[in-house]
Amino acid sequence: MVEHRQEFQRDLEAIEAKVIELFAMVAEDLPRATDALLSGDNEVLRVLIEREQVIDALYPEIEQLVNREILLQAPVASDLRFLLSVLRIVPELERSHDLVIQIASRANHILSEDLSPRTRGLVERMGSLVSGMWRQAADSWYQRDRSAADSLTERDDEMDELRASLIAELATGRMELPVTMDMSLVGHFYERLGAHAVNIGRRVVYLAGTGTDKPAGS
């Protein structure tokens, strides 16, 4: 019985390690995507796409491992909360890296000089804010820190304000229409990344065994 429990614990630790790997890739690639967008560095995009392929392989692997443990071990209490949390968190991570790619891909057809100074400044602030939110979300998962949920919600409110400022700037017509349309999408991508970080904070509340895991925007 003890040996069986030890094997199960090792399996849980292996799943946790893979989830943390996903967190690391999203948190590391977010500032790279902003840099690529603002500098027009297509080489960064190539690297991020390679990482996307790793994530696309890791995502179903984690889900299969979790489903296997639920089927074979019939876990309860904290072990079950962990496995259910992983099933909910992994799609958030996969979709978030897709958004990172979408931001970086704009480097293909937006030059730095295409952006108005205020647009550039707002994008820099949005990129910095959401990168910080994702570092906090990753730390909260690793440390099982339920207190991060409220802080992430406050920072998400700041993201909403920045997006509103970006939309107002785009409405002035200072940039070419194709650039304006792309930057409108970029603002949406940052906003969604912030919402995913908030969702993760709320999942951690559930994982820690208290509160609710109601998704942001629901």
List the defining traits of the structure above.
Methane Monooxygenase Hydroxylase, Chain G, domain 1; elongated; 218 residues; 6 helices; single chain
Helix/strand layout:
Layout: H1 2-39, H2 42-73, H3 77-105, H4 117-143, H5 148-170, H6 177-207
Helix pairs in contact: 1-2, 1-3, 1-4, 2-3, 3-6, 4-5, 4-6, 5-6
What does this structure look like?
This protein has helices at 2-39, 42-73, 77-105, 117-143, 148-170, 177-207. It is built from 6 helices and no strands. With 218 residues, the chain is an all-alpha fold. The model is unreliable at 210-215 (pLDDT under 50). The protein has a single domain, classed as Phosphate transport system protein phou homolog 2, domain 2 (Methane Monooxygenase Hydroxylase, Chain G, domain 1), CATH 1.20.58.220.
- Choose one word for the global shape: elongated
Strand content: under 5%
DSSP helix count? Answer: 6
Structural class: mainly alpha
CATH topology: Methane Monooxygenase Hydroxylase, Chain G, domain 1
Question: Can you tell me the CATH superfamily?
Answer: Phosphate transport system protein phou homolog 2, domain 2
Brief sketch in words of this structure:
The chain has 218 residues and is mostly helical. The chain is built from 6 helices and no strands.
